[in-house]
Amino acid sequence: MLIVLALAATHMFFTAVVNVPYSQVKYGPLPGAAADAYVRPYFVQNYRIFAPNPASEDRELWVRAWVEAEDGTRTETEWINATAVELTDTYRKVLRKQLTIVGAEAYMAAYRGLNAQQTEIVTGGNFHREGDRERLVAALSEHGSAGAYMRASDYVTAYATQVAHALYGEEYEILAVQSRIVYEPVVRWRDRHDADAEPPPPTQTRAGWREPLEYDGQDQEEFARSFLTWLERAGEEAYPR
Length: 241
Description:
about 240 residues; 10 helices; globular; 5 strands
């Protein structure tokens, strides 16, 4: 009985922490990072599906890489829609285990939370050489808190790194990766019966090149096996139109 009560108390505590609206509190005195890891993706709910104006945007993570061939030739690859690739897996689609969408939502929220000086740093510069992550943290910290943004940025950078290795790692050295979050609106709920209605224009984040990042325990071979299988199913949906 005590074990059940302890588990219930822990679940309620982490759920409350996740919903704290102030990042400096959530990721300061409270264990916001631990709460995020616990809640996502299994305990996340979007109550806007019951609202008068339901969720009306597709969240997508797009990535590309800067690679170098054996002869020293360096190339920027084309953008690839990693979310479209991931959504071809039925299991992940049904159970809402889309890591790209979780990352996209977290990054967009953190990106919008940056002040003007921090946004200029993120969008105006490349931090892709060894040790540049620490320099980026220092630059952002001069103008405010950098914790929430860096957590979200590291997440998408690590995912982009795995995508780059899966697609290009056998032939090229991965020098840097770049990510962008694209919000693709659909026709607004109030206009759903209007045959001539058009969706609002998409919005996206902008950021420079980043140093490849890998977390302990990541398995490049297994990621590549899954991602390349999904990519074959996605076909042209994975690339810009």
